[in-house]
Structures are given as C-alpha cells and as structure tokens.
Amino acid sequence: MRLVFIFMLLYSYLSGMEIKDMLQREVVIKDNKKIVAIGPGALRLLTYMNLQDRVVGVENIELSFDTKSTYRVALNKNTIEKLPVIGDGGAGKIPNLEALIETNADIIFASFVSPEQIEMIQSKTKIPVVALSYGAGYGSVTNQDKLNDVKKSLLLIGEIMGNTQRAKELVEYMDGLENEIKTLIKSDKKVYIGGIGYKGARGITSTESDYPSFELLGLKNGVASKVSGHLDISLEELIFINPDFIFIDMLGKKIIDEEVVSKKTLINLLDAYKNGKILWLYPYNFYNTNIENIYINSYIIASNFGADINIEAKQQEIFTKFFGKSAEKLKGLKTAKFDK
After folding, report:
1. Reduced to 3 states, what is the DSSP secondary structure of residue 57?
2. Distance between the two ends of the chain, CA-based, in angstroms?
3. Topology at the third CATH level for domain 187-330
4. CA distance 134 to 91
5. Where are the alpha helices (DSSP H) in 108-163?
6. Of 150, 86, 156, which is closest to residue 121 (Cα–Cα)?
7. Residue spans per domain, the chain
8. Taking CA 178 as the corner, what is the angle to CA 176 and CA 182, rounded to the nearest 5 degrees?
9. Does domain 15-176 have CATH number 3.40.50.1980?
10. Could you report the per-residue pLDDT of 79-119, keeping only the tens digit for each?
C-alpha cells in the first residue's frame, strides 16, 4: 500500500493538474509558484486574487501607476518596477518570448489574447498558458456576459493557485453588490454615458450601449441601437436624444473639457448641461474593464437619483474587498466636479 501511495504521488507530480481554461483548452499545470500576466486585464484579475507577489515578469504598459486603472495603484510599486519586462503589452501584441522564458514562470495567465497566439506562446516557451476572460470581446459584450466570465475566471484562478476561498469570497461579494444595486432606484429618466474609453481616451460621443452600471440599476442608455457594446455617435444625435442625465467617464476628461469649449454652441442645447445634470464617473475601461468601478459607478449614479448612500464609505468598502490592505492607497480618491 505504501508503494502504491508513493507511486500515486509521483504520478500526480509528473502529470500535473489538468484544467480547462476560459477558451475550453485543456492545460496541464505542474507548479504554480511563479506566474506572469499578459494581455489587457490579466494582471488586474491576479491582483484581485492577491497574487501579485507571485508575479515574476511584467508588461511595460503596467508600469504607469495610474488611478485610471485602480489595480495598478494597489500594486506594490517598488516590487513591480524591479520585475523583468516581458514585452510592451497591449491588445494583440506578442510578448517577448525570450524574456518570458527567462522568467522561469510556472504559468502564464492571458487575457484578450487570441487562441492562435496563446498556442504559439505556449509552444515556443514550453510554459502552460491559461486563458482568462472578460466576456466574448473587448467592449462588445453585454454586462452579464462580462461579469459572469470575470467570476468564472476568478474561480479558475483560485482552483489553479490553491486559493479557492478567496475566489468564492470575491464572487459572492460581487453577487451581493449586484443584488443590492438592483433595489436602489426605479426611474424612467433618460440617461446617457459618454467619454467611454475604447483603445484609448475618447470624447463625449463615445458610448457603451450596454453600460453595466446602467444595466445593474435597470436604466437604459438613451442611444437607440441594435448594436451591443461600444458606439461612436454624433453630437447631433446626442442633442436629439437630449437625456435628463449625462454621465461622463473620467478617462475622457481632457478631451471633453476641450469639447465643452470648442463645441459650446451645440453643448448648450443639452438640457442636462443647462440643468447641471452632467456628472463624472470613474473610468470603465483602462487596459480592459475596471470591474470594481462598475459597482462604484452604479452607487454614484443611484445617489444622483435620490438613493441614500454614503459614497465615500461604499467606495472604500469595495476597494478593500477587491484589493485588501492595498485599498488604503486609494483612500480619498474622488471624481471631478463637472465644470461649465
């Protein structure tokens, strides 16, 4: 019996753990001590799972510690800056394969990397690559697809990295937020979201037809379209819709501040502008979706519809649940006041 037990342990070590990733690929994991994240959003999910200390290589794009992507602020800057750079980063960009090999990573977690690229990277580096997901595509999926796939990705990371408790705790918290948000308001007011980032900062006419923070609250973006996901509309179309409330993504602030000056005559036609009902929200997309901001923005929107919410306290609660002690670095983070 002792020999059988030893044989089983040896077999398990040699064969490794076999999992199915978010692309339904079968991947064999032999160890999980050292990890690397590639592609938009992969490092964010690992940070949610408190795994940043196991990261042994980083994309250059992740070294801008910007509040537009709150997970980067939560990272240990001193540690991250000392890691070897494994590529520029960015959608569709192949990492430096030699640099990846030199990290001696046990696992590469990938987000928004094509199946063909994933197979090539795994074949060339001999490091197992696990695909994560934020939904079917970047900026082109419904809210529920996005959040469901993020939850599944967190549970997958938990299974692989041996911290399933953290994954379950976070997913249950997300479910609880969604259930609470659905009860906050009931309104038939016309709303619009502008300044949505899409492969960079955009102006007021950049929008998201299935904006998650609206959907969780039972609100609908005033843009009448059968197209799901990101849209660019005309300013004339926005004036025609004439929403009661216009919410603006902070990522587009610089562009929109300039638009308010250069297109003042047209923007003056918006009732929301005249009535002081244009309000800033935290960035939705910045190197993929800031999941925590979906929830925080929902509470900010609800508070402007009369819901009694301590925004500062709720925001810090959400940051703390997603980032743990590192949330202290985000204390006092606020959106701007819309300036006419």
Report:
1. strand
2. 79
3. Rossmann fold (3.40.50)
4. 13
5. 115-125, 143-161
6. 86
7. 15-176, 187-330
8. 120
9. yes
10. 899 999 999 998 888 999 999 999 999 999 999 999 999 99
